[in-house]
Structures are given as structure tokens and as C-alpha cells.
Amino acid sequence: MNAPREFRGARKLTAGEKDALHRTITKIIECQQIAGICVYGSQIAGYARPDSDYDLIIAIKGYKQRVRYNYLKGHAEVSVLVIDSDLLLKDAQKAFLGEFAVGRFLNVYESISGAEYFDKVETAYKRRVALEAIAELAADYGDLSRNLVVPVEYILFQKLKKRAAIYPPALYSYVKTYSGDGGKKNLTLSCMGFMKPLQEFSEDSLITLDGNNFRITGAATKKQLAKLQSLLAVAERGLRQYAVHGYAGRVKVGVIRKELLSKISRSRSIERIPQFLKNPKSLLLLDEGHLIMDGTQWLKHLLAKLSFSEKTSVSIRKVGGPYTLLREYTIKEGSRVEKFAVKAYRDLRSVKWFLLNFWTANSRKFEITPLARLTREYVALKGFRDAGINVPNIIGVVAPSRILITEFIEGTDLGIIAKEVLAGKTDDYSPIKTYGEILAKIHSLGYALGDAKPNNALKTDSKIFITDLEQVKKDGDRAWDISVFIYYSLRLNTNGKHVRDFVKAFLKGYLAEGNREIIQESLKVKYYEPFFPILAPNVVLAARDEIAKIVRAS
What we know:
The chain is of the alpha+beta class. The chain is about 45% helix and about 20% strand.
């Protein structure tokens, strides 16, 4: 274990200052068993004015008054928070005082005595703060949280934002601490206190730690209920803070009035709140693509990230059927032209999946919630590309609006090609065979598409791109994929002439890497039953007979 650090701020107290402080607080500390004395605030963070006082915490073992403010004038002007040492530790571990006292240890401080004790307090507090931040991210973004790159400073600023919401005058101190001349140094020192807890979380497989960034693992998603507890705790802590503030501040009304007016005046002097304090989530990154946290002006932010100017022209076109929320965005600036597919996962599309769940109740359940569908598609796009499968590149995610932005693929819908093949307009079955090969490869990775209809694939030149991956599932029903592709392609087809060749081409491609047992599984009645109302009997018989022949072949 590393030795506790006495000095943790942009500015270090001089020997003369320490002597003056010690003489000023002599009456408080005499005949007391001191656990530790530390200085925090403007004098340590490096933004003190000539008339600024010194902010001290004195932790006393067995302090009878429990917690109390003292304003002293002597060899130095001092604002002292005197607190029972066990009570301060409880505030760190369990927010016993609503974090009224321990909240000061989010930021820089300097120990005059008791460095080991304050190190214990800071570590306990920052362990809890970090755990709450991880649990909230897991609850807010579900499985997508596993793809977030989270800088350590996010934990700090997210917590400071919450504290400022409870006690707005504190915002002035936060802005000055982290955006002044000593801002970078203060940030480094404040974040150091989170590293030990994060290393422990990494050892427990809650996160993976990489330098000053971490990623949340699947274990953290089990803590989603912690978000509700945390939200309730924020309100409760706010009430506790004000209650303890009133109890601790048993001083003259004039002193309290002067302090409050001073803090309000300083808060009004803030010209600009840095983005990292205004919106700490802007610090979050994705493994792939840009993460945008402004749901109302996401396009403006995206164009800025992609280095487009204000002279850019944007045209929008709806793509797909009545239930789709897919849009093609064409971005033009001079000779530069880029096209994006913008997909919004909203409740309108959920209606479609709800109806399909009712229709396929005995064979397949579809994911309904927008966030889960977005996450599935994002994860599948990354994983499939890594495996060599052609999928669109990810451009960005607009988290608040549940929007995924990918490159727009120009190509021919495989559903159209399937119709032409089945109608005898072409005898080129190679795209159907290729799709079978791709589906087998996806299955070999342990995934099922869930929505494997041919319309979700695009043929461009000699490649086939797989799109619309929002129902992809690890260890999903692979036999369902085979049935969906075959029976959906054959829907409303009354001419069985080319059905056998179509099925044969698809399954021949599938067997290049696929499992014959999965094909056999697809023969079960439950897999074609949902499609029965839209299939001609002769077409069904021809398709199933050809599937059975291929299963029997060895």
C-alpha cells in the first residue's frame, strides 16, 4: 500500500501559514485527541483572493458536539469544520450526514496532521462515489455501457454536478478549482483518489482499467437497481446536508448572512461554466463512433465532429416501409459528399415488434425496448465486422434520443433479388448462396440474427452487406433464422417452379460453414407455422421437401 499523501493541491502551505493556523485553532484542539487536521478550499486549490480565509477540517476522536462550524480570527482568518472522526468516516462510507462533511474530499486538500486517517476517509468516499457512477451508467445504458470508454474524471465531475444541484453556491469553487491556473494539477490530484477503488473493481471484474480510462463489464449491469437507490439517495442526501448544515452552523446570524452573500456574489461572477461541469457525460467515449449527448442538436454536433462547416447542406430521405424510422442523410460541402443512415429506435417501431411477438408467440420473442435494440445493433456491427462480415461502419450514437448513425450502403435489396430468382427473371442464384454462407458464419460466431429476412441484406458490387441488426442475439435461435429467410422469401408466391432451386442454393451456401443439425431443427412445425397464412400449400411442401432432402444427404 502506498503511503498517504499529505499534499494534494495546486498550492502548498508555507511553514509560516501552518504556524499561524495552528496558533489560531489552539483553543479548539487543546485537550482533545486529534485524528487529523487538513486544509481545503481556495487556499489549497490556488484561487484564493487576498481576503480569502482558510478552510479547515479538524477530526476529533469522541467529539461531544459531533459536528460544528467555527469562524475564527486570530493569526489567520479561519473557517473550521470540527467533526467527530468516526462520524466523518461514516459520512464517507454511508453518507451518514448526507455527505455534508465528506463531500469536501472530492477535491484537493492538504493534511497538516493525520494524513493516514484522511487517506482512509477519502478512499472510502471515492470508492462509494465510483461504484454509484458505474451503477448509474449501467442502468442508463444497459449493455451499451460495456462499449463506453469512461475517463476517471467523469466520476469526479458527475458527482460535483450533483452536489452543485443540491447547493448551487458550491459551483463557483468547482469552476475555479478545475479551470483556473492550477486546474490541471488539481484534476490530477483529485482523480488519484479514485484509482485505488477502481483497481479493486478491476480485480473484481466489475470494470477493466486501462490507464486513466475504464470500461464497464457485464457484471455491472446486474447492479441496475442501484440507479433507483441512488436517485432516491440524492434527494435524501440533499435534505440531510441542509439539516446538518443548520445544526453545525450554530453561529451568529450575521456571520451566516455574510458567508451566504459572499458565496452568492461569487457564483454570479462565473462567466462560463466549463462543459465538463455543465455536462460531464460529454467526457464519455464509445469504442467505435462518436457519442453525442445532446438529443436536440445532435446533427450540429455530429457535423462539427466530422469537420463539416456551417455552409454544409443537408437533405433527408425516408427509407423503407411504414414502420421504419430509417432516414438517409446526404451531407454536402463543396465537392465533399457523405451519406449516413440514421436510425431512431423509438416506440413506433416497438409496436411492430409487439405485434410480431403476438404473431410468433410459439416460436420467437423479439426485443421491444429502444435501448436494447440499439445496443444489439451496435454490438453486432462491431462484432461482425471484426469477424470479416460486411456491415456498415458506425458513425455515431445519440444516446438520449436512442439514435444510431452508420454509413449509408448503396445496393440492391436482397429481397428484390429473391423475387426475381423465384419469378424466373434471372438464373443467377449466387447472391442467395452467398447469403447462406454469411448466415452460417454468423451462426458459427454464436449469434442469431432474429430478423433474417432477405430485405435486411444489400448486394453492392460483389459483396453482400448485412443490415438491420437490432434483433441479433448471442446464443439465439439459429433455426428460426433459416426459416425466416426461406419462408419470408416465398411469401405470396404461388409458383413453385423455382422454389427448390432457391432453397437448394441458400442451404448449399449455408452448409459451407453451417451445421446440418440446425437445418434439421428448422423443419419443426413451429418454425413455419407463423408463415402459414402467407404461403401457398404447394410452395410450403416444395420448400420443406427440399430442406428434408438436404438434411438426409451426407
